[in-house]
User: Fold this.
Amino acid sequence: MTKKSNIVHIIGGGLAGTEAAWQVAKAGAKAVLYEMRPQKMTPAHTTNRLAELVCSNSLRSDDHEYNAVGLLHEEMRRANSLVMAAADKNSLPAGGALAVDREKFSSFIEQALIGEDNIEIVRKEFTELPSSDWGQVIIATGPLTSEPLAKAIQKITGEDALSFFDAIAPIIHEESIDRDIVWAQSRYDKVGPSGTGADYLNCPMSESEYHTFIDALLNSQSHEFHEWENVPYFDGCLPIEEMADRGRETLRFGPMKPVGLTNPRDPENKPYAIVQLRQDNALGTLWNMVGFQTKLKYRSQADIFRLIPGLQNAEFARLGGLHHNVFLNSPKVLSADLCLKNAPHLRFAGQMTGVEGYVESAAIGLMAGRMAAAENLGKQYIAPKNTTAHGALLSYITGGHLEDTSAKLRSFQPMNINFGLLPPIEVKKPEGVTRWRKADRKKVKKKAVSDRALNDINDWINQ
Assistant:
């Protein structure tokens, strides 16, 4: 590859890449945006347009007061997001959700970039990574990264730092777990690195509860893969319904084994099976269902998992899944400014960094663009606080996630934005209110977290 001038090079014309290019340009720097289509198409795209939506046309909830996705929408609007401008301009009726006309949405973004003097669009495929002679480079090629480029990324990051298949276990909000039923204990009270011997939450199941759960798994519907996904099963990450199909007792001798644990509320009655939850973030607000990767349809998962004692009122920050997804072990290989630790001229953005969802990918692109532009212009860049939706996502993928150091497989999994990623706020019962239900308290807390986030994002934007 030949040496380029001192501009920001952005590889990938999806939501993250286009948003990054827009932010670079609006900051006063020059950007070159590279997109391989139509020179090389992907199995999922049908056009050569920039920012093509390949799946749903919904950007999910637009409620910025009580929904974390809506909060991220509002923060992006205030940060002059091109993706949000396109969505607002081309929205369709969808109740409380923000749905868009997908053709007009991508056309709006493409035309805006074409009309921006500080942006050049180049149609070409990258089969290797640019050298440091290129200056600032943002990689935003997403889950459908071409095979040659994916191999180049894997080579520079290490064999264990890039996943091609995403086995996702559900994540539960801590405050929805019934602490009167579950108890904290590690198997055989092992302390382990950074542990206390009480590092897992344990949900006990009787024999009848276990078999009711197994029946529900066996009778449920699973997601059917697209032909291009070609998702294999590995023994270390079999879907729980696949394990159940291999025999009714398989799960009880796998992730639900009841050994090395004693229920302090009923020490004489050993549980027939146990579901373990592992802390998933440094704040302790999110808990991962250990070994519960699944390809069950979303509409089935919550009902089935609420059959587990202690999770009868569970609220899910994310449901499980198993699909084709190229993503980095970002807490291991990326610095806080999204740069590759061993090649800091390369900055990553979008879904490849370990976020899920259209707006989350675009938000990482927004920050990556601002970071690269600031560095290119010799300005200081201050990241948004983790009290904002942007800062919370950045914190999660670059260090806020807790690794399970005892596991053979890494535990970092992609995440959507949710209130569990933001530091909680304690709220007091309003004056004059005699009966303050849990649902009312949660609503007030969400509003308080959102208000704080928008106040802090304004400070960040105006820095």
The longest strand covers residues 321-328. The chain is about 30% helix and 15% strand.
